[in-house]
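ugh finaly. both done.
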Amino acid sequence: MTAVVGVPASPNRRPLFALLTANAISGFGNEMAALAIPWFVLQTTGNPADVGLTAFTMLVPYIIATFAGGSLVDRLGFRRMSVVADIASGVTVALIPLLHVTTGLNLATILALVFLGTLLDAPGIAARQSMIPEIAETARLPLERANSVFESVLQFKNFLGPLAAGILIATTSASFVLTVNALTFAVSAMLIGVGVPLIRAIEAEKASGVRAAVGRTLAGLRFIRDDTVLLGLALMSMLANMRIAPLFLVIMPVYADQIFDGPVGLGVALSAFGLAALAGAIAYGAVARQVPRRIWYIATTAASVAGFCVLVALPGIAGATFAMALVGVTSGAGRPFTATIRQERTPLAVRGRVFGANLALIELASPLGVLVAGWLLATIDLRFTIGLFAAAGLAQTAAITVLPPFREERLSRRPVQMQNSAYNAPASTRTQTGSEDGS
């Protein structure tokens, strides 16, 4: 039986540093792989249709795993799930260049490796997010600031990863970049396995099998349904994702073609989003505790909508870059905000399945938004499409302003304390310990 373990009397930030470093390294590897794998396929087969099929194969398992992954996180534990996810990604990525230079590769094998490598990405993300409250407590760091740092790392690798991959592919080869990717996952797994302590609920999840996994997944969805604040945040995040996902994948490429008459402006605008998102995440950690939560939520949502309103005027590169920066800074400031509230309101014992279910709901909104945007662009025009998405954002802002779940007293109430947990603290401070499988 796993027992409660005392938290160190003095701040211990080594686990936080290990978690953030591992997340940065593995995230950097994922960003590089997202560019290197399609490029490798294009160079290997020469068929753009194969690239599209590969991209589709990279998305499908991620969406599938967001539903089942949360159950797996609670079953295996946060640390073990993170390590397993990194190892799976590293092995499958390494096999692509290895098989290419030995036995040879066909498209079916590449797709199978991509599918398997992506399948555990979502559970790995959920596991890392689930660790933050206890690790922040051990580091004596406010939860808001810990989430701010976590999000800042994510935004930095989102900006740097594709740039580094592009440079490395141009100067070496896609095979070399994939080999580097495999090494990044190995380093991340080692950092998590060695530097991050065991964090697990006292009542360890022992049930296994398909029925138990489905039950845990449904329990995560029911938990969100029964907590009006979490349900409201999930629905608002879905609506936000329905606007922002097509902005990158559909609207801005068409915008660049029609308004910029070239890809350079698109690159500038998207880079502005990434840098502004990093700034927003840092700002959240610096000032969030001094600003009422309701005001913060309304302001970040409204500012994001303002970016869409600027784009309705169809400005040139300078105006579009400013608009994307507005959307970016509010995205960077909003993600750690919602993560903090989820962590406060979710007991450790069900955190994996709840976070997994929440991520699944949000990700499911992206394809719908992309389909709607594509249809509107094809049947009407660019300005109307952006205007409709801006109007949807205004309605969302109004809903946040008036609906009861987003009142200050609801958002600020912390019903879940960090209790009922087993924390494998340093030997000098712990009282009792247990193994990760609950024995």
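ok and the 2nd:
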Amino acid sequence: MSRKHYADLLIHGAAELVTMAAKTNGPRCGGAMNRIAAVKSGAVAVANGRILIAGPENEVMATVKVDSTTRQISAKGRLVTPGLVDAHTHLVFAGSRENEFELKIVQGLSYEEIEDQGGGVLATVKQTREASMTRLIAQARPVLHRMLKNGVTTVEAKSGYALTAEGEIKLLQAMEILNHEGPQEIIPTLFGAHDLPPEYSSRSEDFLSYIIDEMIPAVAEKGLARFYDSGVTFPPDDTAKLFAAAKAFGLGVKVHADEFALMGGAALAARCGAASAEHCLNSRDEDLEAMRQAGVIAVLLPAVPIIHRLGQFVDARRFIDNGLAVALGTDFNPSCPVESLSMVMSLACYTAGMHPAEAVTAATINAAYAVGCGHEVGSLEPGKQADIVIWEVANHLQLCANPSSGLAATVIKKGQIILEDGCPCS
């Protein structure tokens, strides 16, 4: 008889356990996104912050040893999944732009028209440049707490609201502090060309050189970012130069692609070997095929066209049926204050054509690979971090059908309970 391994944490009594286990590593593509490895009457055993085994309760109990020191949690007939991964946020900034909400709703202005009136990204840049580190952290911290109540244990966070080397470093350092505080893990991304800053409004080539020669090296020297993201502030060939500079310093590449119009972002993501292309609302089919061949993950943001009243929805079927790996994100930012990834999963089904199992895949294992940590999180497999959510529903169908917020009952990060009975643990 093989020796049983001691479990210091045991979750049992799950009505449905979604492990996302697979025979091969990597994101799920196309039809494989429906394979979530769900079992009835499931259990998860944890030791030293890592998964020992997850599966049918009788198999788990036959494999592990428990005693009076083992923390046992009854899932009480609820759904248990990996911790969710929000693959696209703009977490740290100062101020707010609720006035733009009124302009959209009352006056019917578009995003571009609001920018023309002095709103948009540069309005937040002004407020963020004036903010202290303390203020930035204080504003972001409660957002993370609310994300936690929606089952999110890992958050990708982009900078981009300072547009100077010093300011972008301050934003990334705020993320570093928040990551150290916990309880969630934050994956930092430098978004240095989010927009042209006022001081470079007529000197875009100079700003390009500034990012390449000063901003990226300064951030990389301090080890503050894992990725460099860029949109369409510059023409594609110039943006490719940014990506080459970022890669030379060991940063991965992400692309804000074709959000409001076809700008060549998805094609550029494939050409430059990006980890992900994000938004992709107006990308062409041939560009999606290039992304598939290059292994670029599509990070879709179903709340965005609703929030910005773009007159269309994300078409997730176009990506999945063409064999791409799809992840999900909230795109939390000053003009899109969406904090619930579980709600976005529901929107992905109701408005983007995703199947419920695909939405679960997109918010767990595929999102984890999109932010560079699929080897550690996104599934409940032996050896991975014990990032686990017990939900106030019985199965993944109920979770995706319900667009409510705050459905997470218990959240565990690295084997530690960080939310219990809906309340963050100190």
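summary for the 2nd one i guess: DSSP finds 16 helices and 19 strands in the chain.
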